[in-house]
Amino acid sequence: MTIRSTGGRVAAWAWLTFAALNIADLVFGITGDASYSLMSLTIGVLLLLGSGIAYTAGLRPAIVGDDDAVTVRNPLRDVRVPWGAVRAIRGTNAVTVRFTGPDGAELETRAWVHQTSPRAQAKAEARAKKEQAKTPGIDLTGRTPAAYTAQRLNEILDRRRPKTRSKAPDKAAAAKAEAEKTKEAARGTVKWSVPAVASLAVPAVALIVLAVVGAVT
Q: Residue 91's CB: how many other CB atoms inside 10 A?
């Protein structure tokens, strides 16, 4: 299961297309003479910085649930949590995952995808209630994007939990002990994304250098 922001991705690709066309125009002079002045270099770096923002804020964020773990990919950091380390998944005005961290402490991460303000959440719940009235046979209570995503993740979590029921008490006890052992050993990881940080840091540093050069000259 992979959840992304459609609007964010569309906006990001629109900016990347705009930036690519403008950089090509600066380099090859498509609409005029090619320019390699300090001003044109600054404009090019600003376009690259905007592209870095589009990538980190629009293309990177996602919530991924696979057989082994749930991954929350935010603009600059990746949080991967094995199902055994998950303590709770909730969806209110954002999807949050509470889990056992690398050092055994309990941590919580908030997903960038499906974040809404309390006001937007209230509107979404109101729309769900209207849909509920139109289709009484389907329960849409609390069916906001964040709540629905949390529900789907919790369904995967339930399927991935080891089954401890057994007609034989000794087998049930062994299965339960193994489940507890796996739960204690599981740890989530939190890592900075090098490409995401670089996509912002490199243009920012280049912009500072150009500003210093411009001030000196």
A: 23
Query: DSSP secondary-structure letter at 140?
Result: -
pTM of the shown model: 0.80
Which are the contacts of 202, defined by CB distance < 8 A and separation ≥ 6? 48, 52
For residue 129, give both structure tokens: 């209630």
Structural element, H or E, at residue 121: helix 118-134
**23-52 core/surface letters (b: 16 or more CB in 10 A; e: else):** beebeeeeeeeeeeeeeebbebbbbbbebb
Helices and strands counted in the chain (H then E):
6, 8
pLDDT at 186: 84
DSSP bridge pairs for 189: 80
What are 111-153's pLDDT values in tens digits? 999 887 666 666 666 666 666 666 665 555 556 788 889 999 9
